[in-house]
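Input sequence (75 aa), recorded before submission:
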Amino acid sequence: LERTWKTGGADAEAFFKKEIPTLYFVTYYSYANLHLPSDKPETLNPQLFEDICRLAYMTTYTISMGEYTRETVLK
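Predicted structure, token format:
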């Protein structure tokens, strides 16, 4: 959480502001070409992409099976 962007801008932000549950996965400084003309499939880090997809799948699966207990974020 210390490294989470404070300014918003995530695709899920509009849903979050309307209190619609969202999931948003982002990596920290891992993709130098994001939103640039050089942003092409071949510029992705394939291992990182696979790891994030696996994390997203397992997280979504865990929630859908009712096996997730929401944690409290201390400020």
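Checked by second reader. The first helix runs from residue 13 to 17.
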